[in-house]
Amino acid sequence: MSKKVCDFCLSEAKGLFASMEHLQDNHYICKKCRRIIQSYGLPVKYDIFQRLVTAQEHMRGTIMGVFLENNNADDCMAKYFPLPSVLLHEGEHCISAIEATLNVDQEAIPEEEAVKTVNEIRRQTIHNIADASGSNGINVKGTLYETEAALYFVSDHIINCHRLGYIERNSDDNDHIVVRTPKKTYTYLVEHADLFFMRERFFQKVRAVKHNKQQSLIYIRNDNEYRITPGVYQIPKSLKPGRYQVTPLNDAGLHIKDSLGRVRDYYANEESIDLTAGGTLECTGEYELKWIGQKRSQD
After folding, report:
1. Pairing verdict, β 28-29 and 159-162
2. Cα–Cα distance between 227 and 286 in angstroms, integer?
3. CB 152 within 8 A of CB 160
4. For 224-276, how does the pLDDT look when each residue is reduced to its tens digit (9 = 90+)?
5. CA–CA dist 166, 214 (Å, integer)
6. pTM to 2 decimals?
7. d(CA 124, CA 106)
8. Could you tell me if residue 26 is left (phi over 0), alpha (psi between -120 and 50 degrees) or otherwise beta?
9. Exposed site from 10, 21, 154, 282, fewest CB < 10 Å?
10. Is the torsion defined by CA of 211, 199, 180, 266 positive or negative?
11. 3-state DSSP assignment of residue 185
């Protein structure tokens, strides 16, 4: 008799009291994966984000890619990125809407009430109030809305608006989303920051497929300067290994996978990226790359 296997983590039922639950969608799930999915507040069913939160980190990109090979991009956009409860600017899609808390200096909070919806946000309605300067800050609760244009923090009295390139995406901290500009830092307390970034990455992939930009395309200026568009670039087949200075033209996502399968994301604060032989560079935006030397030596 064949053993039952969890369709999420692929583990087998073992031990006298081990059991697999048979879901209504005809998939099996183990107790561990059920607990993980419920901890994220997701329905217990076999779907893309349930598979991502229970998967090993280095497998998530592959899972997204295979899913999009077997599902229509327009259907994915409609199902997984529906309209939020607030109005957006024309042409924007809501990638994530998540409750967040920002700790600020009390005297920095405006007395007047802020606008209530994203589509009302204009330059004159933005406050961009950063982290408290000391330990006596006050917590302000609001909602973070991420679209392909910006990250918005909407609360009763504060509106913050950030470029996506200033979001720190390489942290192991799942309790905070940090925006670090050259002059200020904004630390938002959230639940499940990792799911926030999974949604962002999946959106970028869906949009790349939807716009028929699956083919890798490199514009070569000279031996050391390139412009890359959405696609997956093999190292050294497409780009030579080494350090690259990056200039975002459309900062919609640049993901570096090394030869061991470890994935990290580029963000605008970084001076350069390292590309190693045997790895890949996955681009969902548009960037200029300038080769500036061999890989930085490790200390």
Report:
1. unpaired
2. 7
3. yes
4. 899 888 777 889 888 899 999 998 888 777 888 888 877 788 876 777 899 99
5. 26
6. 0.76
7. 21
8. left
9. 10
10. negative
11. strand
